[in-house]
Structure formats: structure tokens, C-alpha cells
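Write out a sequence, fold above all:
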Amino acid sequence: MKEFLLIICAYLIGSIPTALIISKKYFGIDIRDYGSGNMGATNTFRVLGKKYGTIVMCIDILKGMCAVGLFYFMPYYLHNVNSLDKTNFMIGLGLASVIGHVFPIWASFKGGKGVATLFGMIIAIQPIIAISCVTVFLVVLYLTRFVSLSSILAGIMLPVSVLWIWNEHEILYRAFALLVAALIILTHQKNIGKLLRGVESQIPILKHRDRRKNRNK
């Protein structure tokens, strides 16, 4: 029963509509009425700029980390069960927060794509693997300024890290990594189409780098 209540709490944490709160408080708008209509960090970068996009991304990552952190309210899992059961429960908490972000009860079940919250969840469960995914995300973002492409490649990096680089043996963790990559690709289908057509929006960062490039041409 306590596990169920903690999973509900994890869902409610994930449901906190960060982008919606910031867009209404500081701009008097509903972020979902602009850009891609998505309530996530990518659309916030696009519509509100890098400052607020960064804030939303960091808070959404923290949502995933805090949700998994609810695990520590269960001493039974801390002291009396094997590592597989612990990992399963942590994954359950993290997935509940991601579902909350995608379908937030506080925002009419219309949220974001859950990538930042998912990364927060992975950081809390397996920080070394999370670092490899975040590194891919930041490198691709620096080179291209496409958050969607960065998210897709970082998502693909998860099963690559789990299955081959770190060779995790737990079957559920392997299945989870593959499922995450598939879900990220699935939820970014529109972005993939825009990338292929060359019409995907770039986020407004690294402008000084672009100005230097243009001056050197």
C-alpha cells in the first residue's frame, strides 16, 4: 500500500507543470498556445528564450530525481530486499514521474514529452550512465542547436550504454533502456520529419558563435 502511495506521489511530482507556471507567471500566456504546443523545455527555449528554457529544463530534471528519491521513504527496500527489487521500485517511481510530466493532472493531462524528467530519473538510478547520455545531449546541442535531435541521440545512447558499454545484466533494466529509446523516437516523430525537411527550429543559444562564423565567411 505504501509503495502505491509513493508511486502516486511520484506521478504528482512529475505533473508539476513547470513551463506552464513560468509562462503564465512571467509572460501571461499559456506556453501550449505557442510554438509546437508542447509544455516542455524544448518549446520553452523556442518561445520564451534560453533563460527560461534552462530553468524549465533543470526543474523538470529535478522532478525525475525527486520522484526516484521517494525510494528512501521505504526502509524495507533499503535493507531487506535484493538490488533487483530496489531497481524495479526506483524505475517504477521514475516512470510514474515521466507519465505525470506527459499527462499532468494539474494541466488537463496535456504536458511535455518527458525527456528532461526521464534524464532526471536516470541520474538518480544510474548516474554514470546518465552522464554518458547527458554528454551526448550537450555535444549535439552545441553542434546543432536542435534540442529534438539532441534528445533523440541521447535517448539512443541509453540502451547503447546499458547493453554494451556498461553491460548491465538486469533484464528489466535492459528492457527499460530499449523502451525509453523507442518512446523518445516515437514522441519525436514530428521533429524527425521537420529535421529531414530542414524546417526544425533551433533554440536561441550560442548566438555569439554564429555571429563570429558569419563574420569570417
